[in-house]
Amino acid sequence: MQDLLYFFQQLVNGLTIGSTYALIAIGYTMVYGIIGMINFAHGEIYMIGAYTALIAITGLATLGVTWLPLVLIVALICAMIVSSAMGWAVERVAYRPVRGRHRLIPLISAIGMSIFLQNYVHLAQGSRNIGFPALIHGGFTFGSPDTFQAQISYMQITIFITTLICMTALSVFISRSRTGRACRAVSQDLGMANLLGIDTNRIISATFVIGAALAAVAGLLLGMYYGSIDPLFGFIAGLKAFTAAVLGGIGSIPGAMLGGLVLGVAESLTSGYLSGEYKDVVSFGLLILILLFKPTGLLGKPEVEKI
């Protein structure tokens, strides 16, 4: 029973982190699915969302607003607005002017934007860790205090529910809305979609905005979960989310969701049963192993070029 509870605890921890990886990974996979490019500034947009949420929470506390639902909603809305605007600006500045050129050019442009945003936050907020208030306390405890107790915190439950709502809303938006259908059309054939009257520039910008908004949600959730943020907060998470997107199949939204969960669980089980020092080794080793046998990822489909 003790071993089962310990495994359950590591599984819950892994699904918690994996859920946020999935939210960030969707931004990578949507952009790649639409224009075939990797947005390496996406991790920094996630980081800016976390900083924006912290500033909003601090401002509300200064004004004496302490009702938790209002604080969380206002912080989330502020983070999504700022991150969405940043995602739109990245597309207009770093991608649109170089779209259609050699693949290395937009790659270098995205890396430059990533470095710019990191240093901007360094200058604006300082390089030190900043504490993020833990607004959600408490949880459920299972097991005997004499052996091992598994815990599911209310924060973890909040992350699960929020991620599920975001994933469901995105799936409905992509499958049912006019813009969602246009996104699917552009991802299949950008040139033909343009000829059929779809404003491809608007759809591409909308893709960056949607990915940035989801990254802002992850920024708020992980900020509260870890309790601190810094200007490099987005680099590691962005790298892990990109790995999750590739693991699940870059360009596939369900693949990004699955890849994030698989990566989070692999990290947690490695930390729990081996050592935290090996979690990155196991995660990237798992990525290499899967790509060796299935190069398109878990749910990715091979590209078919028509001649």
UniProtKB/TrEMBL annotation:
What is the source species?
Marinobacter koreensis
Question: What stretch or stretches form a coiled coil here?
Answer: none
Q: Which domain of life is it from?
A: Bacteria
Quote the protein name from its UniProt record: High-affinity branched-chain amino acid ABC transporter permease LivH
Q: Name one Pfam family in it.
A: BPD_transp_2
Q: Does the keyword GTP-binding apply?
A: no
Q: Which UniProt keywords apply?
A: Amino-acid transport, Cell inner membrane, Cell membrane, Membrane, Transmembrane, Transmembrane helix, Transport
User: According to its UniProt record, which protein family does this protein belong to?
Assistant: Belongs to the binding-protein-dependent transport system permease family. LivHM subfamily.
Membrane topology per the entry is: Multi-pass membrane protein
Task: State its location(s).
Answer: Cell inner membrane
Q: Which residues cross the membrane?
A: 20-38, 45-64, 70-90, 102-121, 154-174, 203-226
